[in-house]
Amino acid sequence: MATQIKLPEGAPEEVITNALVRDVDLTAFGGQGSISLITLDNGQDHNRPNTFGPASLQSLDTAITDAIARKPAAIAITGKPFIFAAGADLSALSFIQERTQSLAIGKLGHDVFRRLNECGIPTFAFINGLALGGGLEVGLHCNYRTLASTAFTALPEVFLGLVPGWGGSTILPKLIGPERAVQVIMLNALSNNTMMKASDALKLGIADAVFEPADFIERSIAFAVSILSGAKKIERKDYSNDPAWESALATGKAAALKKFGGAQIPAPTKALELIASAQTNTLSQGFDAEDQVLADLMMSDSLRASLYAFNLIQKKRKKVEGAPKPALARKVTKVGVVGAGLMASQLALLLLKSLKCPVVMSDIDQERADKGVAWVKNELVKAAQKQRMSAESAQRLGLLISGSADNSVFAGCDFIIEAIFEELSLKQELFKKLEAIVSPECVLATNTSSLSVEKMSQGLKNPERVVGFHFFNPVAVMPLLEVARTSTTDDATTATAIAVGKELKKVMIICKDAPGFVVNRLLTRFMGEITDAVDEGTPPAVADSAMNSIGFPMSPFQLLDLVGPGVGLHVAKTLHTNLGPRYRISPTMEAMVEKGIRTFYLKNEDGTVVANPAALALIGQAGSPSTQEQVRTRALTALAIEARMMLDEGVIATAAEIDLCMLMGAGWPMHLGGILPYLDREGISDSVCASRFHPAGVASLP
Amino acid sequence: MSRSVVLVDAVRTPFGKAGGIYAATRADDLMVRAIRGLLERNPKVDPSAIEDVAIAAATQTGDQGMNIGRSAALLSGLPNTVPGYSIDRWCAGALTAVTTIAGAIAMGTNEIAIAGGVEHMGNHPIGEGLDPNPRYLAERIVEQDALAMGATAERLHDRFPHLTRERTDRYAMNSQLKTVKAYSQGKIQRDLIPMAARSVEFGWAVATADEAPRPQTTMEGLAGLKTPFRPSGRVTPGNSSGLNDGATAALLASQDKALELGLTIKAKMLTYAFAGVEPEIMGYGPVPSTLKALKQAGLTIEDIGAFEINEAFAVQVLAFLDHFAIADDDPRVNPYGGAIAVGHPLASSGIRLILNLARTFEAQPDVQYGITTMCVGLGMGGTIIWENPHFKKS
Fold it and tell me: Distance (Å, rounded) from C-alpha B257 to C-alpha B262?
């Protein structure tokens, strides 16, 4: 029996997953005796999956004891409809105060789960639905696993800043070998938390058999009977002498370094260490090591920041802070996209796929408009070919997209978004023209990244229908949408914009119309410090690697290359004009744009990257270089100042929304909590703004 | 008939008690399980070759609605090219699904098809949503008793006073005892498809046997039961079938197709008939339907070597046996027990009779003909006469 432990103080009450035991007579399946079938069921529907907190683990422990006492031919464990178990109950983790508490929770999981392997009775996991993290790990402790053909499985711990610490890091490499274990624990988790389909899990050797969900339990029992009778045998391989250990670990390491821009982040590093140990250790040794790693991670600021970020994203995905009542939103049955360039075409495609209503595009001549439409149609064909969309849907949507050089096609639109050249006068002129064509309620949205939305609306008969609707590149992939309200934007317009954003499955924030909104304002300020350092004489290699240890997905100049120096310079200039000289205009960047040099880095044929000599040649000779540490400090300081100013100016309501923006719009990592928890824990917020952004304990250790 | 129709196979889920093991299970899931179990047992049948799916339910709403025939076909994983439809003749639903499919096969419009029936009386209590036309009573089209099945059973006692409470109780006890014996010999389990059933309170169970049988039944116990349909009546919960959940499925084919595919032939359909009687004594229905079927087949009751009659009420079985001068405990009748013991999930029961008869045919090659028959609410009976493919003249 495992030792009882309590929830940490302040933690929300545990939703207990009950483990219930019932015997199944095997004679009906041609077998002998019975299976003690343990059901995991928290009594709620699939929207609240089974999870494991202390009381749930206790319940499973009791169930296992009960099952063993029944002296069955086998013990099996399964879930509730659609859900096996979604892992540890994360809600309590943020409240843990002491290392001993974290150690206890890790150990409790092991103590309970390992009984499934050590009880001397054959054990089976009938994974009938979603199994994540600790949910999958329960199954890994069993001797055999069946999987429903529609069930998704994953070990997402590394994605969350944890390690599979209830047996996964130790058992999986021994069960399926180092290469595949690295794939599941490292590569899948680091690749946006990719989940495995049942067919993948079967191929990887995680599942021994896959059955359709309609009679999954019945067929799983029949499978168990065939194993028990010896009619079916599952071969297990000993991987301890597998030649692939070294290369697999190297692959995992490289993936982690790539993901975090070369920084060594604790969770992936520790996960790899645990995987490596699995080559030679015993299960017990592995479990002990997992306990220690888990306790260390749980008592780290970076994990607290990750958990904060994870919960923030989950919460804000559902509810947009400060949004007007959804009922105010107007129906959108026809959409206009002004512009037919690449960005506009991507927007048109996304709107078309999500809203499934007529989308009209326009550009200065028919040829350009046609080109945009052709691009959208081609994307639909490609999607159908790749079976991401049915041929019928592609046909349907293909008929809904059209383009013209004549703005009159926008008549009848409920929502128009412009993505034309970033020039205020052009946009002002456009909105005036559109106003003559569309109804007074039609929302006029702009995808501008830094121009004033307010100014675009001035002089219109109905300025209240103008709203900023700012996407990030690539628009289909980046999850953030900034919705910017001017001083006149009304609630119906905002609600309509939010409703459209929801259809596009975006995470949204509502901000005041202010230069650069949130993400670009912070990124540009940050970039300005790096380019400044270079312009002052800091070697580019020093300046650009100054942030490497933090774990951003790319270095500042890699980001610049992605955005393009032209766009970057344009935004910098706009912010310089509107926010003041702290936004500097880099002569090096001006020179790059002037000379048409598009990237700072060049990719060699072998994939290695070198600084572009043409770009290096443009850097002036200045005499006050900074060290890496100095560059790093000034960049982070700038971020803190700017973030504080945005909050003080009311550009954005809460610090959490700034973090959300950086997580979802800039791809900044979870272990930084976006950015502000990191500035807090590094003491930068305190030294620069004389206060933290988040109270201690919210996104950090208490 | 223009073409011979054969029963290839038939199965059922274990029957549950309403509010029992299937309390949290959907009716359509029961039906799907029966169909999948049937197909699993008959791997020679290509699912895409199934030409129709006829599924019966007495209450066709909710989880028994949405055209349960088509819905069960899709949910069973049959290709979407396989059509499906719903059947309703109350208790004779599955029986009618079988005869309707058989009609299509005989006419040459189908070669191989599935018939089935389901009733979840926990989810759909008897009489749910019924809205009898006031004309029934105002114009005396029927008497009040005709609308309550227990009352019709009491009316049979009135009509045939020699069918006493003592005789019905004894019949009921024998049904329980025959079921106990059949279970102990493994004769019922053979055609049961184990069914997983969720319970939030207790966890998943897997039903592998009927839930309703009361093996401890005694005459004394039965005699002490109350008569809920009438003060001092004779019909009790002990000599009636209960309220149950369950599903049944049968695979039917033309004889030619079955031979071509090398399928089992468990019974051969000779003919069938449905007939009406006064709704107040609906339990008498099997008498006229059997007389009609016998006449069509050119047989007499003496030619029938095996009977599977639904035990909605013991008195209704006795009325049938009495008419044909068959003893209450004739071994040819319901040798594995009947609905009084295992339960009667209304529209599913017909196929339970058929699969039992098929087992009798297999065990008794000296029997040439058998019948499956049942009574139907609002005054009807249905009878199918089957020929034993294993028959050998002794």
Answer: 8
* Nearest CB to A39; choose among B32, B189, B203: B203
Measured in angstroms, the CA of A560 and the nearest CA of chain B are apart by: 52
Each residue's pLDDT tens digit, A304-349? 999 999 999 999 999 999 999 999 999 999 999 998 889 999 999 9
| Residue from the list A27, A43, A218 with its beta carbon closest to the beta carbon of B200 | A43
Q: Is the pLDDT of residue B264 over 50?
A: yes
Average pLDDT for A366-381 = 96
Structural domains of chain A in order of their starting residue, each with its CATH number: 18-310 (3.90.226.10), 326-512 (3.40.50.720), 519-650 (1.10.1040.50)
| Cα of A26 to nearest chain B Cα, Å | 9
Whether the pTM exceeds 0.90: the reply is yes
A22-54 tens-digit pLDDT: 999 999 999 999 999 999 999 999 999 999 999
Element (H, E) at A362: strand A359-362
Cβ contacts of B202 on chain A, cutoff 8 Å: 20, 22
Smallest Cα distance from B308 to chain A, Å: 24
Place of tokens 């002037």: A594
Task: Identify which of A22, A28, A43 has the shortest CB distance to residue B204.
Answer: A22
Farthest-apart Cα atoms in chain B, separation: 59
Q: Distance between CA atoms of A534 and A134, rounded to whole angstroms?
A: 47
| Strands (DSSP E) found in B85-214 | 85-87, 112-120, 195-197, 205-207
Instruction: Please give the positions of B annotated as active site.
Output: 91, 344, 375
Beta bridge partner(s), residue A264: none
Give residue ranges of A with CB < 8 Å to any B CB: 19-22, 24-25, 27-29, 37-39, 41, 43, 78, 80-81, 212, 214-218, 221
Domains of chain B are 5-123+243-386 (3.40.47.10)
Task: Check whether A142 has a pLDDT greater than 80.
Answer: yes
SS3 A445: strand
Taking CA–CA distances from B193, the nearest residue in chain A reads A28
Please state the three-class secondary structure of B16-57 as a single string.
EECCCCCCCCCHHHHHHHHHHHHHHHCCCCCHHHCCCEEEEC
Indicate if the pLDDT at residue B128 is higher than 80: yes
B293 CB-side CA count, 13 A: 29
**pLDDT reported for residue A2:** 64
